Amino acid sequence: MSKLILLIVGAAWLAVLLPPLVRARLNGSPANSVTNFRKQLNSLENAGGRYPQAQLRGMARPLAPSPRMQRQPGPLSSMTGALVRPEGARHHRPAMALNPQALVRQRRQNTVLGLAGTVVLSLFLAATTGGSAFVYLFTASFLALIGYCYVLVQMRIKRDNERYLGQFRR
After folding, report:
1. What integer pLDDT is reported at residue 169 of this predicted model?
2. Among 65, 78, 86, 167, which residue's CB has the most CB atoms within a 10 Å radius?
3. For residue 30, what pLDDT is reported?
4. What residues have CB less than 8 Å from 131, skipping those under 6 apart?
5. Rounded to an integer, what distance in angstroms lies between the CA atom of residue 67 and that of residue 52?
6. How far is CA 157 from CA 104, 105, 162, in A?
7. 168: number of CA atoms within 13 Å, CB side?
8. What is the mean pLDDT of each run of 10 residues along the chain (170 residues)?
9. How far apart are CA 99 and CA 95, in angstroms?
10. pLDDT at position 63, please?
11. What is the DSSP string of 68-95?
């Protein structure tokens, strides 16, 4: 009876805590926002010597179009009216949409974290309930995590070898 109560309490905690954690992870957790900030800061530092005053002006007044930001109407400008995107307005795109490698890395990181969460949860449930189904779930998820990490390491080794050999092929 006490195992059942413990299982119900654990399920209630998961139902309360898991959705906000997953939502925060998908929408950009604080760790991701720090990483994005550092990337943007590095890009500003790299381009800082060219037009520092214009960049500061553009950052201070994001709604005022600068002369450099004037764009020619694109193929989608007829589909979006002037009320939606006025002439000369900035076109905001997420930083991750520009770098497909970052998207792949984020997807792999989410997969590893999901598998690790499954391992921890199934180990907890196997230890508290003693059910054989949770022991099998723990074993399967642990093997999946180890296998996925092995595949990622092999991909990294292959990429590093290709980079190393590419230096000598030039």
Report:
1. 78
2. 65
3. 57
4. 125
5. 15
6. 17, 16, 9
7. 4
8. 78 79 68 72 69 56 54 52 56 60 88 91 88 90 93 92 83
9. 7
10. 56
11. GG-----TTTTTS-TTTS-TT------G
